[in-house]
Structure formats: C-alpha cells, structure tokens
Amino acid sequence: MIDLYTAATPNGHKLSIALEELGLPYTVHVLDLARGDQKQPAFLAINPNGRIPAIVDRAAGDFAVFESGACLVYLAEKTGRLMPADPQGRSRVLQWLMFQMGGIGPMMGQANVFFRYFPEKIPAAIDRYQGETRRLFTVLDGHLARHEYLAGDYSIADIANWAWVRTHRWSGVSLEGLPHLKRWRDQIRARPAVQRGIGIPPSAVDLTRDGDERAQAFAEQARTMVERGGSLPRPAADDARQEDTR
C-alpha cells in the first residue's frame, strides 16, 4: 500500500496518474497548502523540504520518497513498468523527466508567479518566463514530430511533462503553432487512467477561465502567499473537458 500526500497541482497529479496507470493500491492524504499543512512536523518528517507530493511505501517498511520525479522513478522501478530496464531506454526516459523537472516545471511555475500572483506586474519577468516556457514547448513539439511519445513507449516522462503542459493557459502561454505537442496532449488526455488521476484530488476551481470568480479568488489567495513568502498552491483544471483545447 502506498500513502500519497498530495494536492491538486501538476506535481501532485503526476503521482496520482502514475498510480492509476500502474494499478497500485494507494491511500490519498490531501494537504491544504493555503493552511500550511505541508509545513507541519508530521509531513516534514516525510519531506524535509515541505513540498508536495510525497509517498510512503508501507509494504517496504514505511519507506518515504519525496520530489515528484524521484517518486515516479521509485514507482516505475518498483513495478517494472513505465520505464525500460535497459540502460539506454532508461536513460531516454530520465532525460525527458529531467527536462520537465529542470525546465518545464520551474519556468511555468515562475510564469505563474509573475503573470498571475505577484502584486507588481514586471513585464520583463513575465516575458522572460513565458518566453522560456514557449521555447521549451517548441522543443517538445519538435521531438514529438518524430516520435509518438517522448522516450519510446508511454512512460513516466510523458506523465511528468503532460501534467504541466496541460495547464499552459494559466501560465499565459499558447500552444498555437505546435501541432505535435497538441496531438500528444490530447492522446494522453484520452487515457482512462489519466482522466482518473487528474481528479485525485479534484480541483475546486476551473482556472482555464480567466474571468471565473473562483479563479480570481484563488489568484488572490496565491498572491497573499507570495507576499508572505509561503508556498504557492498550483492549480489545475477541474477535468479534461475544461482544459483549453487550443
């Protein structure tokens, strides 16, 4: 049994998607990021960095794993699925996983801060992070023009990148002119396990609609957290039907 400590964020949804794809039994523990659950001693004992997601493998002597990429690798290696065992195949998956961990996630996260949350609008910062996100999307599109998935067969690399790319509109970045990235996004979104995974836990807010009152309230809450130096909640659309299809 896996204990999953999570919230409705792209990083959180990486693990719920993977667990659904792998068919592993798991228990969900939803942390309220605005309340600061991730900073409480009980969770810091699992993840000293105070960030979601994290897992505890009860069947392996309560072994704890933090960092979403490390959790994905652990689950893949535990089951022998979603990542090849041969060195070259494994390396290809890890390369694209690190691409997300070191590029897509941080750049989109900073785009969200300066485009959505930061009280002062700084055009140079917004342009910097949105522009770098778009550049990374172009890299993905170019690779996917020649490959169905990122690293051979469908893998944890696809899960990790997809969980962020699907929220592009909240970062203020378009997918126009990136047909191969859109094809890949839609293909993965159609998987039943993915559809289940993005609902665990569900998001109460549809943040694909800029004028939605609940979305605006969420942005205000996040802005307050930025001002006091806390961790940001990272939203996702309620379900696949509400995602931007452009």
What is the count of DSSP helices, taking H or I runs of 4+ residues?
Answer: 9
Strand content: 5-15%
Structural class: alpha+beta
| Total discrete domains | 2
Low-confidence stretches: 231-242
Written as H for each helix and E for each strand, in order along the chain, the element string is EHEHEEHHHHHHH
Largest sheet geometry: 4 strands, mixed
Give the distance, in angstroms, between the N- and C-terminal Cα atoms.
39 Å
Please give the order of strands in the largest beta sheet: 2-1-3-4
- Cα-based radius of gyration, to the nearest Å: 17 Å
Helix content: 40-55%
Structure characterization notes:
The protein is globular, with a radius of gyration of 17 Å. The model is unreliable at 231-242 (pLDDT under 50). 50% of the residues lie in helices and 7% in strands. It folds into two domains: 2-79, Glutaredoxin, CATH 3.40.30.10; 87-197, Glutathione S-transferase Yfyf (Class Pi), Chain A, domain 2 (Up-down Bundle). By secondary structure, it is an alpha+beta fold. It has a four-stranded mixed sheet with strand order 2-1-3-4, covered by helices on one side. The protein has helices at residues 10-22, 41-44, 68-79, 87-117, 123-144, 156-165, 179-189, 192-197, 213-227; strands at residues 2-6, 26-30, 54-57, 63-66. The termini are far apart. Keywords: Transferase. Residues 224-246 are annotated as: Disordered. Its EC number is 2.5.1.18.
